[in-house]
Amino acid sequence: MDELLLSLLLSLGLTEIIECAFALVTGRRGKALLLCALANLITNPPVVLLHSFLQGGWPLVAALELGAVAVEGLLYRYSGLYERPFRFSLIANALSFSLGLIVNQLI
């Protein structure tokens, strides 16, 4: 399998598991949980692709991750399903990013 496709699938899969687990732990169910999964489906692939193609180091990574936090936060906010949507988005993304770094070191 192509290395970029494998990276995309692994990143999306881990992100979905981690962020949806965080959503469950924080009491999100039903539509709120589905929205979490869809928000990651929207934001994760572009972030991974842009990072792969641009290779800009930590400033680029920070900008891409903050962009994902903003987009997801807006989706959560306008859905009306989340209290403190940007805080949720920031914590969920920080968790998945941090655990992703650990997984990358292990493989």
Account of the 3D structure:
There is one protein chain. This protein is mostly helical and 107 residues long. It is 87% helix and 0% strand. The two termini are 17 Å apart.
Uncertain regions: pLDDT < 50 for 5+ in a row? none
- Biggest sheet details: none
Quaternary structure state of the chains depicted: single chain
Strand segment tally: 0
Structural class comes to: mainly alpha
Q: Measured on Cα atoms, how large is the radius of gyration?
A: 14 Å
SSE order, one letter for each helix or strand = HHHH
Proportion of residues in helical segments: over 70%
- Strand proportion, as a percent range, falls in under 5%
The helix tally amounts to 4
Can you give the mean pLDDT?
96
Distance N terminus to C terminus?
A: 17 Å
Précis, in short:
By secondary structure, this protein is mostly helical. Helices cover 87% and strands 0% of the residues.
SSE inventory with pairings:
Blueprint: H1 3-25, H2 30-54, H3 57-79, H4 85-106
Q: What structural keywords apply?
A:
mainly alpha, globular
